[in-house]
Structures are given as C-alpha cells and as structure tokens.
Amino acid sequence: MKIVTYLRVSTSRQGDSGLGLEAQRNTIDSYATARNASIVKEFVEVESGKKTSNRPELAAALHLAKVTGSTLVIAKLDRLSRNAAFLLTLKDSGVKFIAADMPDANDLTVGVMALVAQQEREAISERTKLALKAYKARGGKLGNPNGAAALQRAAKGNDDAVSAIKAKADSYAADLKPVIQDITSKGIVSLGGIAKELNARQIKTARDGEWHKATVANLLARLEAKAA
C-alpha cells in the first residue's frame, strides 16, 4: 500500500515551531507501520486562518496521490471535518482518502459529509430563489433576454460522449505535465529514459500500467497538441 501524507497547522508560528506537526506525524507513522504502508511523500500545509480555502500543499498532495495511485492519509479530521471547501476538494479529486485516527472515515465518509455541506448550500440557493421570486412579483425583471440563444450555442448533441472521453485523457495528460517538465529539466529527454523515470517514481499510466516508449510518445503528443 502506497500513501501520500498531508499534515496541517493553522498558523505560521505553529509551522515554524513544529507544534502539532510531530503529533500528526506520529499518528500517521503508526498507521503506516500497522498496515505495512510505504510513504511516497509528506506534505505540510501552514494555513493563515484568513485564507483557509487556499491550500497549495493539499492540491500537490492530491496530484501526487492521483498519479501514483496512492491513498491520501491525514492524521485527524479535526476542524477539517467541518470545512466544506476541504471536504469538497477531497470528494471531487477522486483520490482515496483515509484519516489515521478514524480509519472508517475514508473517502466514502467524506462524500457523505460533503453532501451535508452541499445540502446547506442548496438551502441557501433555495432561499435566494424565493427572494428573486418575490422581487419578480413586485415587478422586477429577471433573466437574460439572450438566454435561449446562448443555450442553443452551447448544445453539443451526441458529441458529448466523445468530448468527455477526450477531456478525461487531456486532464490526465495535464496532471502529468509538471512531472514530465521536471524529468526533462534533469536532462532526461529520450522516450525510454522518461518511461524509466516515470516507473521509478511509481507513476501509473492512464490504464494503471507501466510506462513504455509508446505510451510516453502518446503522452508527449497529447501535451504538444494541447499546447499548440
């Protein structure tokens, strides 16, 4: 089992002193030892408290977990369990998730908690709709007069399925773009060399297989086409 670990403290002072980090690290290490898991990489987030939605380390941790097929592990749900933005980020990432202190609180549990947060958002939306309805009843005008035309332009018909497949492949290639850039920056530019390095980094192909010259060539071609 491969895991990517994510530690979080809420202030720069705590991050500098290590306060709270060591306890989280010990909890995760105990979890990894009990399950014979190997830690691919550790990420530490220091949040300001004022910008709790800005989590670059979480994004990086989710990206690495995604491309290596690892499980994201945190020490405690703690206040994160009440943070809708954090929960929805986890839910939408598609990455398997486990809290070390609550192994049952995995990605499925996060999904349930995210649904609760979503229900609250929907309740707010419903209240907004009622307010707009009351405004319209008082003679106010709602909507975009060009809305119908905009919907017609947006119609895609049967091309949706093909577009979805292409979008998924493009998204996976985009996930790997920074990895390829890092590899080539080290002077590794041959197809075989890149394939060997990707395998060494435990990064899987889109079909969960090992890299070969052909799969690397396909990936580079897709990235080049997207950049054109």
Kindly report how far apart the N and C termini lie: 39 Å
Backbone structural class: alpha/beta
Biggest β-sheet, characterized?
4 strands, parallel
Choose one word for the global shape.
flat
Helix share, percent: 55-70%
Number-wise, the strands total 4
Oligomer: single chain
Q: What would the average pLDDT be, to the nearest integer?
A: 78
Poorly predicted runs are: none
Counting H and I runs of at least 4 residues, what is the number of helices?
A: 9
CATH topology type of the largest domain:
Rossmann fold
Q: Compute the CA-based radius of gyration.
A: 22 Å
**Corresponding CATH superfamily of the largest domain:** Resolvase, N-terminal catalytic domain
CATH architecture of the largest domain: 3-Layer(aba) Sandwich
Number of domains: 2
Strand content: 5-15%
What topology does this entry show?
Layout (H helix, E strand, L loop, with lengths): L1 E8 L2 H6 L3 H14 L3 E9 L9 H13 L2 E4 L9 H10 L3 E3 L7 H31 L9 H8 L4 H27 L5 H10 L12 H15 L1
